[in-house]
Specification:
Layout: H1 3-13, E1 20-22, E2 29-30, H2 31-34, E3 41-42, E4 45-47, E5 55-57, E6 68-82, E7 85-99, E8 105-120, H3 128-132, E9 137-139, H4 153-182, E10 189-192, E11 207-211, E12 216-217, H5 221-228, E13 234-236, E14 239-241, E15 249-255, E16 268-274, H6 277-292, H7 309-321, H8 325-332
Parallel strand pairs: 3-12, 6-10, 8-9, 10-11
Antiparallel strand pairs: 1-6, 2-6, 4-14, 5-13, 6-7, 7-8, 11-16, 15-16
Length: about 325
């Protein structure tokens, strides 16, 4: 039985329960609208290609070596008030799409995972009755980060969304591990976002991360000026960002599109790959692959200047199979 079916049955049988309030018609949020912007931060980094962060031209390539693309989505809304606590319906999904010799994008076999759950703090609302009706529940009880505000509904929602984000990342890591175990020597995977820590033998070989946001700063002064003034089609030299508690990665910045008349980060992406000599040798070639991915455009996505089309294809596929707000409202109309 799906979570939506179980939720419909639960609401029908508990319609007179004073501890339950059904919330209908609330906007459904996705990852782009539901999470507060990350707090800007400055982290250390060590240049590993040359003595300082410099600008480097990228060789023009006719095509891309990337064959597979991984991305995930999440959706959420407040579905219930249970014992005075907002209960978040959360949906997370991830997939790997592959590009065939005909250039068409398809779902890679066995490479899609999704999960739905009701997310709320068990410390403030008992989960047992919900679970008895077959509803998957995830505990988002705050870990005493802000004790005096632990039962603040705004904090409860934020903690629940953080749990949903963790769930999405676990699905993405599951698919990444599956791809590493089954991929061929000529296959390369592009991951949307930072590379996760990997326990795979040999690490994340033939895996590249593409980061579109720039809340974390790694360089200041003249080196920061060089990367922010990076011309279209050029990259920085490779550096190793500090990642406390994680295996090291190598990284560099790449300007996908001309930023004249635009914000400093227009068309600017950060690339990650495993920390080894092969990455140093291939940084220019990998950058050329990414430049070759600039067409077709990812319009009408607002992030089109930094998003490559195959990543948008992943998102569009995942959204097409995700439950909609209309479907959820229909389940709650009992």
């Amino acid at each position: 039985m799906s979570l939506a079916d179980a939720l419909q049955r639960f609401v029908r049988e508990h319609r007179e329960d004073p501890a339950l309030r059904v919330v209908r018609g609330t906007p459904q949020s996705d990852e782009m609208t539901e999470l507060a912007p990350a707090t800007p931060a400055t982290h250390q980094a060590r240049v590993v290609e040359g003595a300082a962060l410099e600008q480097k031209p990228v060789p023009a390539l006719a095509g891309s070596g990337f064959t597979h693309f991984l991305d995930g989505i999440q959706r959420s809304r407040v579905a219930l008030i249970w014992h005075g606590v907002p209960v978040i319906w959360g949906y997370a999904a991830a997939c790997v799409r592959e590009r065939g010799a005909d250039r068409l994008m398809r779902l890679a076999p066995g490479m899609c995972e999704s999960r739905e759950a009701l997310i709320f703090p068990f410390a403030f609302a008992p989960p047992e009755e919900l679970q008895r009706w077959g509803l998957a529940c995830v505990d988002s009880s705050p870990m005493a980060r802000v004790p005096e505000d632990a039962d603040n509904p705004a904090y409860i929602r934020q903690y629940s969304l953080e749990m949903l984000g963790d769930l999405r990342r676990r699905l993405e890591r599951t698919l990444l591990k599956r791809w590493l175990e089954s991929s061929g020597e000529r296959q390369w995977l592009l991951v949307d976002g930072e590379l996760p820590d990997s326990e795979q033998e040999g690490g994340l070989r033939r895996v590249v991360g593409l980061i579109k946001s720039h809340q974390t700063r790694y360089f200041a002064g003249e080196e920061q000026r060089r990367l922010l003034e990076l011309p279209e089609g050029q990259r920085t030299t490779v550096f190793q960002p500090h990642r406390h508690g994680y295996r090291p990665v190598y990284s560099w910045y790449l300007r996908l599109r001309d930023s004249a008349g635009q914000d400093q980060t227009f068309g600017l992406v950060r690339v990650e790959a495993r920390a080894d000599e092969e990455t140093l040798r291939m940084a220019g070639e990998i950058s050329g692959w990414l430049l070759a991915e600039r067409t077709p455009l990812s319009l009408p996505d607002a992030r089109w200047d930094r998003m490559i089309y195959p990543v948008r294809d992943c998102e569009q596929y995942l959204r097409s199979i995700a439950p909609t707000a209309v479907e959820m409202d229909a389940r709650l109309q009992v």
